[in-house]
Amino acid sequence: MKMFLRLLLFPFAILYRGLTGFYHYSYDKGWKPSIEFDLPVISVGNITVGGTGKTPHIEYLIRLLKDKYSLATLSRGYKRKSKGFLMAGEQSSAKEMGDEPYQFYAKYGKEIHVAVGEERAMAIPAILNAVEDIQLVLLDDAFQHRKVKPGLNILLTDYKRPFYDDFLLPAGRLRERRDGAKRADMVIVSKCPDKLPEQERAQVSKKIQPYTQPDTPVYFTGLKYTTPCSLKEKDSGESFKNILLLTGIAHTERLVEDLQEQYTIVEHLKYRDHAEYTPSLLKSIRTKYQSLKEKLGDLVILTTEKDAVKLQDSSLDTFVSDLPFYYLPIEVYFLQNGEQFDARVLKYIEGERSKEA
């Protein structure tokens, strides 16, 4: 059935290939200009739709760089309720900034600057105008955005959904042709199993290399969930066993697999990616929780870090404050050569900064 549907959509994929191909060809040939800035600009993105782990990888870079440089993150702010350029501040919210940018601000807002703007070529000068000492910009999900030419382009591809096995929209999930990967300075295969054999890593790298520039390094990362945190309290919540799982993310398979090793998932309330938590939705979640709680006794609501930033909106306090909400912090780790990756990033930044001096 899946193959039949793909064949049915193939003519539309050809049309899409023509449109996106001309767009990228125009930039490759210089018919459309790409702006370069006089400071280090690092882009993290993908060529597929759906989650490849961009947010935790941006956060990895934030942790690597925040104590060394004055940096700003710039995101489009997908599905936010506002328009134009905005810098995050104390009065900001996930609705105004978007889920991921507000998560950056909630976690690192005292150490970095967080901005959103649909037009990145205009947003970067706006950041530099708003903050005098910015030394570095991290672009979130900007691999297809050709108006800005980053100095370091990091391409992510999901281990279970590699771009080299995929097809163009709408027959597949590719935003552009596979050889768009040639713009990448580094490729990261994300969401890998903890113990991925070296032989398999070599095979995956070999399948990636025909689409990249020669000698483009390929790295492999996994995701680890740390101790659950209470949404309102400071306790870690280590004592609970039964969970009502609440998610509004693109892919939940790995999360569910990991949780099942430690907890009993009584029920999974699975909503679409970037789901909006409204009072009416939270009322239904409350009803579900209370019904299950009566039967089980021991029960908490566990959600993702991405969902948690939306649930912390002050307008939802009435519906959230008296329920045992917990969230799972998530971090990226390298299966190997993490120090090499860090060194390449730092070498690029220092090289760019030496040009400015």
From TrEMBL:
Sites where the protein binds ATP: T48, V49, G50, G51, T52, G53, K54, T55
Example GO BP: lipid A biosynthetic process
Superkingdom as given in the UniProt entry: Bacteria
Any Pfam family: LpxK
Pathway assignment: Glycolipid biosynthesis; lipid IV(A) biosynthesis; lipid IV(A) from (3R)-3-hydroxytetradecanoyl-[acyl-carrier-protein] and UDP-N-acetyl-alpha-D-glucosamine: step 6/6
Keywords assigned by UniProt, alphabetized: ATP-binding, Kinase, Lipid A biosynthesis, Lipid biosynthesis, Lipid metabolism, Nucleotide-binding, Transferase
GO molecular function: ATP binding; lipid-A 4'-kinase activity
One cellular-component annotation, GO: plasma membrane
The protein's name in its UniProt record: Tetraacyldisaccharide 4'-kinase
Native source organism of the sequence: Rapidithrix thailandica
Gene field: lpxK
